[in-house]
Specification:
The chain has 454 residues and is an alpha/beta fold. Helix content is 37%, strand content 14%. This is 3'-5' exonuclease domain-containing protein.
Length: 454
């Protein structure tokens, strides 16, 4: 992620609870109200194995509060190496972070990450794992809101990739080449560390764009007064005794007054009032800072939560699907016969050509939805850098990244002489049939079966 205005990203790899990095993490958690979450795991390449992947790395990007003397955009990224840290030693810490009312959690479709993360901790005796993240805000929701506001049209149904959102909102190119790398191998490469840190940190950057837009347009409710750090630990009685604050409270209507009082209580005795409910005590073993008024109102208006059901914790089994698999095999064979003449020779990842043996694809705008399905089964599938790429741009990207270009545009086949065996024309309109259609290698064929089963 390249941006000329950004400071160098500060990355801390946490591999032990006795390390200085872990101590710094605990200190940072008391100084942040917004955290970006992401996780990495090694994809399961056996489509018939009914288990969840084991999460190897958990990323936490913490944006420090400016009241503590830091710059408003200062942030730290912590990479928790779950293959080295005893999971029981951080289980309670993570559970507390996930439900802390003082910390807004950001993620990009983080529910799947939470399912895998919970399974990983349960397998190490930390039962019942994790079942909730609250308050939470998904980056896809932020993008949908900003798109609707700027373009004045209905929110699109298709969910954009994180790379596309970064390009649209931040104007930066987010490389996803290491997404399907082996995250279980140790030590992690410097490239893997940087990739993992950027994936979490960009969530903070996207949220800051969203927050700035809301503040600029006055959509976070009016601010009655500026809460200074000297007022944070004052109770209601002390607040009323201060003339400037007391007058503001008296002149305010009830919801506005609640905003002020709520923003001044400490976390250890914090109370959350929502929809006229009674005050509920939220004890915490961690001395976190309460959200400021702007952030608190964003959470109230746009906040979400992730709740895992019992069905979410069970991997989808391949049992009782023998007939379906048989029919899929038959369809695959028919599609293979139909595709004769469209594909010749080995793909660019073939070992005989110096490739690494791992399939890589580039889905153009006509089959962009197929990329998401391929990623769900562990495939390395990218989309074009721009929204309306020229044929030459697609060809250059496919050639440089050693990908097979998947398209429904027959005109692109004219350029096969430029990238031999790197263009495949998809004939089907339905994504499930598209997955079946392309079976140039055994790995792809197996992943087609697994994707349709799940």
């Amino acid at each position: 992620m390249d941006s000329p205005h950004q400071k160098p990203l500060i990355i801390h790899l946490v591999s032990s609870t006795d390390s200085p990095e872990f101590t710094l993490l605990n200190r940072a958690l008391t100084r942040t109200s917004v955290i970006g979450l992401d996780a990495e795991w090694k994809p399961i390449r056996n489509p018939h194995k009914s288990t969840f992947p084991t999460v190897s790395l958990l990323q936490l990007a913490c944006q420090l509060r400016p009241q503590l003397g830091s710059d408003s955009d200062e942030s730290l990224v912590f990479l928790l190496d779950l293959s080295l840290i005893p999971l029981s030693s951080i289980w309670e810490l993570l559970r507390e972070i996930f439900v802390s009312p003082d910390i807004l959690k950001l993620g990009f479709r983080f529910k799947q990450d939470l399912v895998f993360l919970s399974s990983t901790f349960c397998s190490q005796g930390c039962d019942p794992g994790f079942d909730k993240v609250e308050p939470y805000l998904d980056i896809t929701s932020i993008n949908h809101f900003l798109q609707h506001k700027h373009r004045g049209r209905k929110t699109p149904k298709d969910t954009k990739s994180l790379a596309s959102i970064c390009n649209d909102l931040l104007g930066i190119s987010l490389s996803k080449e290491l997404q399907c790398s082996d995250w279980s191998c140790r030590p992690l490469t410097e490239e893997q560390k940087t990739y993992a840190a950027i994936d979490a940190h960009c969530l903070l950057e996207i949220f800051n764009v969203f927050k700035a837009n809301l503040v600029k347009e006055g959509k976070t409710y009016g601010t009655i007064m500026e809460l200074h750090s000297s007022n944070i630990n004052l109770g209601l009685k002390e607040l009323l005794q201060k003339q400037d604050i007391g007058d503001a409270l008296i002149r305010s209507n009830f919801p506005e007054a609640l905003n002020i009082v709520q923003a001044t209580v400490t976390s250890e005795d914090s109370h959350r009032v929502a929809n006229g409910e009674k005050l509920i005590s939220m004890p915490s073993t961690r001395n976190t800072m309460p959200m400021d008024e702007v952030l608190l109102n964003i959470v109230r208006k746009y906040g979400e939560k992730i709740l895992l059901k019992a069905s979410d914790r069970k991997p989808k089994s391949s049992k009782k699907k023998g007939k379906k698999r048989s029919s899929l095999v038959a369809v695959c064979r028919e599609k293979q016969l139909d595709g004769i003449g469209d594909w010749q020779g080995p793909p660019p990842w073939d070992l005989s050509l110096g490739g690494d043996g791992w399939p890589k694809f580039l889905c153009d705008v006509m089959v962009e939805g197929l990329a998401k399905h391929l990623r769900c089964v562990g495939m390395d599938a990218a989309i074009p850098y721009s929204k309306k790429p020229e044929p030459r741009e697609l060809i250059d990207q496919a050639y440089k990244e050693q990908r097979v270009l998947l398209t429904r545009d027959a005109k692109l086949l004219r350029h096969q002489y430029l990238i031999k065996n790197q263009i495949y024309r998809v004939k089907s309109l339905l994504k499930n049939e598209q997955l079946l259609e392309y079976n140039g290698t055994l790995e792809v064929y197996l992943f087609c079966q697994f994707a349709l089963e799940s």
